[in-house]
Amino acid sequence: MIGRLVLGNAVRYSSVLVVGVIGVLTIIGSGAPNQSNVRQSELELGSVQVPGDLKEKTRDVQQFLTDKGYDPGPVDGMMGRRTSSAIRSYQENNGLNITGQVSNELYLHLAPKPEERKKSTTLVYGQPAGGIDDPGYRASISRNVAIAKVDSSCKGLFVPKIKKEMFRNIIPIWNVYFLNNSQYRYNVHYDISYRKAGRTYYGAYNEILTQENSATVRPRKLVQLPVMKGESDIKEITELNVFHCDRR
């Protein structure tokens, strides 16, 4: 009887040991990387992280293209004709395979490099930003976005960026960036055309409107000016025409 008890305990303990070993192996196995179960949330290559979500990736690519002076249309994460055309132009100008599509290769080619990100600045509305005394950085932003036209009376004035941003993630604001490379203080006069679209009780609407604005830009300064605020039905800025500059 005693022998049976001992044998029974031994068997019971052995069962516990076997179960314990299987549990440890299961835990170890579950911690091992399994490519088929890896969540493709982002791809990290070097110091650049490529989003796994296609809409987020497309939105970033649209913003990168806008920053570089191309016209992909609204930065909304939706692939359309203008975005595809801007991608094709960028790919052709930079010796890439011309597909007109968003890809990891395109994302990495467009994404700001670490040294470029260090030079970026956060701008306060209507206030000058620092960092533009760096000749390389100044040269890189001394250009106009595709939809901007600048009159010859505005020598040294550029419009390097037009961007939609969200104030406190609620209020849409369209900002125009002016770079004044000249020694003059300019009173800048410009027309801005934009597309509004939406739906009311009476039906849908889609129209192009134009309004005239002016702004003062001090010499050798980069300023960010809000030109449209709080209108969620503004879908895109279609054209900005700087038609005259007064020297002050």
Structure explained in plain terms:
The chain is an alpha+beta fold. The chain has 2 domains: 44-111, Muramoyl-pentapeptide Carboxypeptidase, domain 1 (Orthogonal Bundle); 123-248, Immunoglobulin-like (Sandwich). Helices cover 31% and strands 34% of the residues. The protein has helices at 2-31, 54-67, 81-93, 104-110, 114-119, 135-141, and strands spanning 42-45, 48-51, 148-150, 157-167, 171-180, 186-200, 203-217, 221-229, 234-247. The strands form 3 sheets. It has a 4-stranded mixed beta sheet with strand order 3-9-6-7, with no helix packed on it. The longest helix is centred in the N-terminal third of the chain and has 30 residues, at 2-31. The termini are far apart.
Which terms would index this structure?
single chain, 248 residues, alpha+beta, Muramoyl-pentapeptide Carboxypeptidase, domain 1, Immunoglobulin-like, 4-stranded mixed beta sheet, 3-stranded antiparallel beta sheet, disordered N terminus
